[in-house]
Write a structure and sequence with these properties.
14% strand, four-stranded mixed beta sheet, 519 residues, alpha+beta, six-stranded antiparallel beta sheet
Length: 519
Amino acid sequence: MSARDSRFDGQFITGVHSTGIYCRPSCPAVTPKADNVTFYLTAAAAHEAGLRACKRCLPDAVPGSPEWNVRDDLAARTMRLIADGTVEREGVPGLAHRLGYSPRHLGRVLTSELGAGPLALARAHRAQTARLLLAGTDMPITDIAFAAGFSSVRQFNETMAEIYHVTPGAIRASARHRKGIAHSPIAPGTATGATLSLRLPARAPFDGGRVLGFLGARAIAGMERAGRWRSEAARREPATEVEAGSLPSYSRALRLPHGPATIRLTLSGDAGAPAVECEVHLADIADLAPLVARVRRLLDLDADAEAIDTALAADPALAASVAAAPGMRVPGSVDPEEIVFRALIGQQISVPAARTALARLTEALGEPVSFGGFTRLFPTSAAIAERGREVLRGPGRRIDAIVGAATALADGSLVIDVGESRAELEERLLELPGVGAWTASYVALRVLGSPDVLLTGDLALRQGAARLGLPDDPRQLAARAASWSPWRSYAGMHLWESAHAAQQEAKAARAARRVSPRR
């Protein structure tokens, strides 16, 4: 805090009792006396202590805490579910039921570990979502109240005044950057939706190009799209080649609790303050808060990249890769059940082959949509359980495993969500016929954002390890990777990147041989 180190913004809150405010660690205000300071893990704990948010440093306008992915305990699992909007949809009893505890016990644990109970934590999350919308959009204030999850405009106004000591209108007036919003119907017969653009901050360094590239390489036709996007500044200049002035982009259709949505993600900001521009089209504005949480998890925006890079670069075998790709991220998920089927269908086949099989499944069984240039949502587990055998191809045992998992998900005997612990999630998956260790660990990696998963059974990952001078035997690689803990998921991304680089080098060599003149 005394060093005003922005790396820790979002990782803890500084409460200054002499002034009655709480700040981010990098707040430029005069450093307070130590006797007047209390540190909190959450903004909700600071609210419970009677503190209000600093108007100067805006402590909630930063990436979220990486603790909720690194930790796998009850508090972390609760925070992941709160961010996904579980309290707004199911209440505290529903949240507690999802976690397997009574509401009373859950409240005791959260108050002890985080300084606030589930209602206070959910309230703080709603306030932060509202502040994001007030500062970044022209959305009507009344609509913002319900989009953020408040049950009434009065509750919204009272909460914002209590936390920020200003009115919602004053928050909007003081915002430095604002973007537009327009309301339009999504499709005939549906409720009026909303189209808006949000700027989501990422923790630096952020290798956004690679994470968007990972998602784009696995894009399912009709549901996802990868491309290039030229900024307004670049559009004003003549392009000398196709890629001049362009940035990678990723778009998709997805299913949310209250209806479908589409997103388009592009990179913005700079190296010191990276961000992602998220263009959103929602069927129901009440889905905005969970959508933002899922996009942040999809791109791993809250990861403590500097700590991860420092730890991995200490190994000489990884140092060059870390230097070439600082801020590597682990791609997450916006639909946990979808990841289960991607893993089952994609195991032991190439990425293009998996993409073709998933596109065929989505075209045949996916729910039709007609907005944003997309035609399908990913099929539900119920649809795959009922008709999967008509569409799926390949070994009978693999089809049995896919349909069996779909049946378990459809009847509720298997639940996959961000509220699971890694051990529980993997154990439940491994109980299913045909599901092996690679599949279970890959689902934990993508759905939970578990930071310490190394898929030593993955052939491409082992090939990438060999290219960097590391063992390619699964047991030897696992032993060699022990020193990378707790960041083995990120090490695995570097090994996959190494394998991809080898494939590109081989492809370039083949192309060079084809065009070289005969001697």
